[in-house]
Amino acid sequence: EAQVTQNPRYLITVTGKKLTVTCSQNMNHEYMSWYRQDPGLGLRQIYYSMNVEVTDKGDVPEGYKVSRKEKRNFPLILESPSPNQTSLYFCASSLGTGINQPQHFGDGTRLSIL
Amino acid sequence: GESVGLHLPTLSVQEGDNSIINCAYSNSASDYFIWYKQESGKGPQFIIDIRSNMDKRQGQRVTVLLNKTVKHLSLQIAATQPGDSAVYFCAENFPKNNNDMRFGAGTRLTVKP
């Protein structure tokens, strides 16, 4: 089954404790992206990757890092999490970008930073 | 800045009725639009898309209408069912900004039995 898998689904942690949210897709997609979703706001892009070893900042990259060493994986790293990073996070992938390239989303990771 | 928005944050309909969810966009250069459905505890799920050179596209029980004159997008759901209860949001693609995809905040659709 074609899917985007995120882990963990839920995490409660404390300020300053490094964490990684993994994302894996099995569709051989070149484009992958991370978003955060906050109440009343649309999905906001954190980072994206057009292909292996190619990553770029989205709209809200501060406090986050990513890497793309393999095509299927795109982990999101919070080196020193802070409470304002409490949010619902989604990983997405697509074959490419633009017309007829809808993104496929994972089921989300809810992070609570105390 | 330019953004994708929604006219109504919530919509409640009776089972069997038709639903119409609206979306306003501000970038006249956007060339591609998508409607997503997000159920509680799940990620956004693709429903239907439309290119800017079209004004209507139909799927199974869903129709998307695009009015470029007023920069308006709508999703029509026929014979709404309880399983249609979810948050629906639209997304637009900005081709001139590296195909940047922008998402609206969403409308919560509740279907009453």
Task: Kindly provide the radius of gyration of chain B, computed on alpha-carbon positions and rounded to a whole number of angstroms.
Answer: 14 Å
How far apart, in Å, are the first and last alpha carbons of chain A? Answer: 36 Å
Beta content of chain A: over 45%
Which spans of chain A have pLDDT < 50 for at least 5 consecutive residues?
none
Task: Report on the architecture of this protein.
- The complex is a heterodimer of chains A (114) and B (113).
- Chain A contains no helices and eleven strands.
- In chain A, a hairpin with a 2-residue loop joins strand 5 and strand 6.
- In chain A, the strands form two sheets. In chain A, strands 2, 4, 5, 6, 9, 10 and 11 form a seven-stranded mixed β-sheet that branches.
- With 114 residues, chain A is mainly β.
- Chain B has no helices and eleven strands.
- Chain B is 0% helix and 55% strand.
- Chain B is globular and about 45 Å long.
- In chain B, the strands form two sheets. In chain B, strands 2, 4, 5, 9, 10 and 11 form a six-stranded mixed β-sheet that branches. Chain B has a five-stranded antiparallel β-sheet with strand order 1-3-8-7-6, with no helix packed on it.
- Chain B is an all-beta fold and 113 residues long.
- Chains A and B meet through strand 10 of A and strand 4, strand 5 and strand 10 of B.
